[in-house]
Amino acid sequence: xxxxxxxxxxxxxxxxxxxxxxxxxxxxxxxxxxxxxxxxxxxxxxxxxxxxxxxxxxxxxxxxxxxxxxxxxxxxxxxxxxxxxxxxxxxxxxxxxxxxxxxxxxxxxxxxxxxxxxxxxxxxxxxxxxxxxxxxxxxxxxxxxxxx
Length: 148
Description:
By secondary structure, this protein is mostly beta strands. The chain has one helix and eight strands, in the order H-E-E-E-E-E-E-E-E. An eight-stranded antiparallel β-barrel has the order 1-2-3-4-5-6-7-8. The radius of gyration is 15 Å and the shape is elongated. The protein starts with a helix and ends with a strand.
């Protein structure tokens, strides 16, 4: 657990570093998630993301929020770095996420998270699937989001 504390600081510093400085370049995304954490519990999330375009259809940003883990009514705080590519011609997106989740009242407070997501991107709304790993088991979920 002590080894993950510096990585949280690095994650936050990297998020501030890659965050765009002008509001024109930033995309703010508000989302809802419903996940099944295999052999653990269901989890429902409210997520907020900020992304900035780095090259063509590729953007980098941070996603954070609050998650309710239903088994035990525990609370999680997802903190992820996101790299996302929008394939405009097909209106499809793919993304990769990595970062710690702070899970309160479930033993180890910091848990590693890594995931791959894909789905359909409309003009403002998107719907997709996210498949990944949340220590100690795999996780799969649905995502609904709206970008501003």
